[in-house]
Amino acid sequence: MPLYEHVYLARQDLSTQQLDSLTDQFKGVITSNGGSVAKTEYWGVKSLAYRIKKNRKAHFSLLNIDAPPAAIAEVERQMSLSEDVLRFMTIRVDEHEEGPSAMMRKRDDDDRGDRGERRGGRGGDRDRGDRERRPRREEGIAEGGAL
């Protein structure tokens, strides 16, 4: 059977119990149509880039699915009917990732605090070559020189 990664966004005002029951409902739809859910991940409440149905934040969840296309079509139909689901996206993949997804790894990287080493900020390691320092305008005026 084909493999899919399915991400959906749920309203921010849902409780964790409501979100778990919503995820279990979608898992039930997939298993009843001959598929299986390999992994579920809750990514947390995140800010949206723009308002979606008057919401500025949403719960993000990932499902790794192994199911026939009919099961995916049914779960997407159910999500489009649900008022709690803001958006969803399903992508067919060749294989599922082992371990945590990229969103979960990103959170681990942020916790370690090694962001400054990767960015090319104002480090003292830059090679400026053989350029000579030019005097500033104020220095030229203070010395009485005309610029």
Tell me about this structure.
The chain has helices at residues 16-32, 69-81, 102-112, 115-118, 137-142, and strands spanning 3-11, 36-52, 55-66, 85-93. It has 147 residues and is of the alpha+beta class. It has a four-stranded antiparallel sheet. Helix 1 (16-32) runs antiparallel to helix 2 (69-81). It starts with a strand and ends in a 5-residue tail after the last helix. The mean pLDDT is 82.
Write out key terms for the chains shown.
147 residues; alpha+beta; four-stranded antiparallel beta sheet; 5 helices; elongated
Order of helices and strands: EHEEHEHHH
Strand order of the largest sheet: 2-3-1-4
How many runs of DSSP E, i.e. beta strands? 4
Computed CA radius of gyration, to the nearest angstrom: 26 Å
The rough form would be described as elongated
- How far do the termini sit from each other? 75 Å
The count of helical stretches stands at 5
Mean of residue pLDDT?
82
Determine the fraction of residues in helical runs and give it as a percent range.
Answer: 25-40%
Secondary-structure content class = alpha+beta
Q: Largest sheet at a glance?
A: 4 strands, antiparallel
Task: Please indicate the percent range of residues in DSSP E strands (runs of 2 or more).
Answer: 25-35%
Low-confidence stretches: none
